[in-house]
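Re: export button greyed out
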Amino acid sequence: MEISGNKICSGGMDMILSVKDVYKSYGKEQVLKGITFDIEEPQIIALVGPNGSGKSTLMNIITNLLHADKGIIKVLGKSNRDPNIFREISFMQDNTVLYDYLTGYDHLQFICDVQGLSKKQLLDTADRIGITSYLNKKVKNYSLGMKQHLLLAMAVVNKPKLMILDEPLNGLDPTSAIRVRELLLALREEGTAILLSSHNLAEIDRVTSSILFLKQGNLIQENMAEFEQVRYQITVNDVVKAEKALAAVGIPVEVVDGRLHLYRKDVSLDRVFYLLEQERIIIDDIDKKVFGSEERYRKIFTEAKADELVEV
Amino acid sequence: MSLLKFELKKIWRQKKLAWLLVIVLLCISWVFYQNKIEQDLMKKEAEENISFIVGKADELYAQLLPLNRENRMTEEQAKQFESLNNMAQALFLWKSAIYGERWHEIPQIENDFLTNLAKYEEAGGVFTALAGVEREKAIAKNAYLVEHGLPYANETYPVTPALQMGKIATILLGPGGLLLLLLLFGNSYMSEKEQQTLLTLRTQPIRRWKLLLAKYSGMLVVMVFFLAVIVIGGWTIPNVFGDTFNDLSYPQFLETGDSFAIIPVWQHLLNVTILFLGAAAFLFALSLLIGTQLRSSFANIMFTGFITMVGVVLTDTLAIIQTPWNPFQFFRADRFLTEMPVYPIWLYAVSAFLWSVVLLAATILLREGGRGLFKSAEELKPFRKGRPKHFRALWNTSLFEWRKSRRRGLVGQSLIVLSIAVVVGYFIFAEQVKVKEKEAIERITLFIEQTETEIIPFYMKTIEELEKMIEAANEKGEDGEFIYGHNIETYHGYIESAREEAKLAVLALDAYGKRDWTPFYEYQLFNDRRIYEMQAEAKKYMQLPQSIFGYETSIAQKEWMEEHEIRPVFSGTYIPNIYDNWKPEQRREKEWTDKMNRKVDHSGLFSLYMYFRDYLYLIPLLLFMLLVGAGFAGERGKRPTLHLLKTLPITKRSLFLGKVLYSSVVAIGSAVGIFLFTVLVGTVFNRFGDWMYPVLHYHSKREVQSFDYTGLRAFEGGYHFTPLGEYLLKALLLYVCVVLFLLALTNVLGLFIRQPLAVYALTGLLSGAGYLLSWKLDDFTQYSPFLYLNIPKIANGEILALLNNPAISVYMGCAMLLGATVFLLVVAYVGLRFEKRFVKTGKSVTATV
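Workaround output, generated via the alternate export path:
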């Protein structure tokens, strides 16, 4: 996989989603300022931003629930205004779109009616998501987590090529969250591209390959592999000697709380072991810390200045 | 207190008070505007009111004038002549004051007239134009006006504050106002339950009774706000744009039979207000009680309305329960507040307070929870064993609409309530028929009994007295035979007529028991023709409000029924019709005439006929419109379920058409089902009815004047009779078209408007305005679909006769309504096809990564 400008692709495949120059304003407030990105391969992409940053607006525009002021969106080569795109994509929204006087089964049955799916597909999906036990209860009796599961089942049942999920992990207990994560990874393996929004950055780190940060109407795209940072915390018997030894060969190292802190991008662990062994320094403990989206999020939304964004 | 404050804040934030304010002010302005544009009629009406008196006074004056010229008057006649002269002068001044619109002068002039009238009668004169109770009322009212220094006011179309308030009160402080408050605020508890915001309140350290009490208090505050808006609006608008004399103490009559009393308008308004407050307090308490027991807002409104309706109907039927302690009596204020008071008004206030306390106590004490009247199962079976159906998009959406409706259960609940109402209605009709039949048979029996014992002896005695008068006159040298002889002939005629009528009555009574209707009709026709002749003669000399048309058609109707051997439907000797000329002040007489001549039968077909004739068809129409007519507006708002549908491979056009199709099928199917159930109930408990029963159908003047006119002619206009079955089929056909049109309208409005309430309000507004505007379209009026919303008046030709437009018919109505429906749907469909197809594209200016 390669990152090429505003494309998330591995090359050679048809475009799954193409968003080009999308603008949207609410009154005088411009929420989206020329958003452009493409998805060309099945993968999981996260859309991250603070509340009110325009994530749901962008998702609604992609699915034609909202109309952009300007811009072109293609889904699987078709205009997003064509309702037939929903034969191959699905959008999981928040639970206010559920009919609380209908059962879960009623919701799925209607989607199967419309999508031309069989009862077996319905039941398999319900089983896969784990909602069979309460499928025949009215939605108004569901908990938040149950509603999320139902919404997910509704999004999955037609085996879409692109799934857009708005806060899919909202209200899920840890067991459910793990299950959903595994489901998303499995779907990706089955060839489904997933665009999801979430505030749970730890979960995002576990499933996504790319993150789209939305700030002040602009898109900041990051490849997880590119900016993911692994920091080693090494406890040694002589920290001063170890720091000097590493610094002497040009390896950047910090000493925090009596431990050596160094980054994988700067040095390989083998080299560090070799150098420390040469100096007869004994390694007591090594701790590996992975810093991903959360670090990046902090940097973008709390440290970076607005004028830096264009340069990212 | 903090809870009440929170309640009021919620009400304020929901903007329902703004809605209430707008509706009330619109209503007041409309009433004022209507009255204002009718001000020119005040002079005409005032003139008409005295024209009969003027005519009579002139006639009497003319009788005495030759004697005066020849100086042949006795002393008494001279006094009478002088009084008549003064009366004529007063009447001249009276008319002059009317022409000059010097309304403040009229009471004093009338006073002079009445004083001279009293003198005239003291001198032995007889003035029949103003006699009996009417005379007493005129004297009492005049004395009141003079005493309080009040001018003559326009009571029919008032533009003065208090009198106008009286008109507004009949609308806003009556059933209309109560319904408005119930719809806007009666659900406040239930809606919190539905939206689960009640859970927020329940998880606070608040006792349940305090919560309920705060809710109720909030409703009472709204009620006070409602009253305040009516008072301020009703006072300000006439003061700014109308006449501004202090009419608070203007006289208002209370009448029961021949007894009457006068109270000032302010007292009447106070009475109306007290009863309205009582009714609203009871209604809110009832709604709160039901709200704690049921599960949906709709069911809450339905049951509150249903219980109230049944209570009011029962109270109306059973005189014994018409007491202040019956809470449903509050809702009948308009029926007894114009009568002499039987109970003091404060008793109603006490009763309302007690009932509210009882209901609130019951609300607090009864446990709340899952105990709904229509509690549904926890586990619901999937439709069609869970198998999906792969239809075309339109059918899929229609099917989904049906499934939603099934799951909500509101259509089913409404059908149950309506079915119960139909059965209750049947028994009410049956009771009315029983009473009417009993009264009619008793009248005939009494007549038979009295003919030989009282009526004929009375005539005989009168004849004897007349014979004595002839003798006395002959003794004086006058021609007694010439003076009184014709009266004796008349009385002999009466005796002959009475004997013939009694003979027919005996035959009728006997035949009625054997279900042989011919002799019965013979008797009725004899009676009707006699009354008709009397009325026709009387109309030559008097301005009677009843038309000859009403008598002629009544006779023709009975002839038709006799010919077709139709079972008698008890009624009077008259058919109230469009040619009647009732004046506003004759409202009570009109109501009485309508009531006496109201035809009631509890056979299947006739029951259905009454549903159309009495506008009861509007109940299922409006109910199902509210249930299924919101279109897309019902899927927006707090629960934007439309967003789910839009992310499925269905076009918005299919969704739209699916909704229209489903709502039309449900609204029409349910209503037709209810209508058929009405016929079935009548058939099972009584009989199917007479297909050939004659229903009056008017003809326009243009039709009557045409050379090829084949209908029947009466004095004022043409007509024919439509068989009842045919009438019902036409009415049903028109009903279906009206439903289709209104649903198309609401669905189209639902494309643009987010709130279902706003959709219904706008539909109502458009329909009302469209209907009124249709009457102004002259030769094009038949092309307005709104004109045909008034089904009974289209089906019986009333509107066609009033507008003198023969093109107006049921079939034309169907064509126009269907045409308008198709037009609306096509425009919406095409509009949706092009919706946002073209999106602006432009140059990207922001660099992205």
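DSSP finds 31 helices and five strands in chain B. The button fix ships in the next patch.
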